[in-house]
Amino acid sequence: MYSDLVMEHFQHPRNVGELSEGPDVGVGQVGNPVCGDIMKMWIKVTDDRIEDIKFKTLGCGAAIATSSMVTEMVKGKTLTEALKISNDTVAEALGGLPPVKMHCSNLAADAVHEAIKNYQEKHK
Ligand code: FES
């Protein structure tokens, strides 16, 4: 049902945790209206690049795997590059998700985008 990569990220999620709030940290939280699950992301930005990223997800295995994958995809990227990553790209990078779990991938990139927005608001 799940790809090996989804199972691997679910069992060994990368970048779990949180970052202490500060001027160089942006925080984004999104909820999935379909199931009520919640994902929160913290990004630490240096010279317009995501230097560090952490997440906490209260959700299913697919939500945890997509959170983990997106943190790996955007770490080291510029904010502009990270904004181009979509929920679909994250699901594809994981080798796809079963159709019934596609809605679970709707949080990952959105949470990163929200964290970037939060950071940019602080630096207007
Ligand atoms: Fe809620 Fe997957 S069932 S995100």
Coarse morphology = globular
Mean pLDDT: 95
CATH class: Alpha Beta
Strand content: 15-25%
Order of helices and strands: HEEEHHHH
How many β strands by DSSP?
3
**Helicity level:** 25-40%
- Compute the number of helices: 5
Which ligands, by name, code or SMILES, are bound? FE2/S2 (inorganic) cluster
CATH architecture: Alpha-Beta Complex
Give Rg in angstroms: 13 Å
How many discrete structural domains? 1
Decide which structural class fits the backbone: alpha+beta
Fold and architecture overview:
With 124 residues, the protein is an alpha+beta fold. It has one domain (4-122): Sufe protein. Chain: A (Alpha-Beta Complex). 40% of the residues lie in helices and 21% in strands. It is built from five helices and three strands; from the N terminus they run H-E-E-E-H-H-H-H. Strands 1-2-3 form a three-stranded antiparallel sheet. The protein is globular, with a radius of gyration of 13 Å. The mean pLDDT is 95. Bound molecules: FE2/S2 (inorganic) cluster. FE2/S2 (inorganic) cluster binds at residues 32, 35, 37, 59-60, 62-63, 104. FE2/S2 (inorganic) cluster is lined by residues 32, 35, 37, 59-60, 62-63, 104.
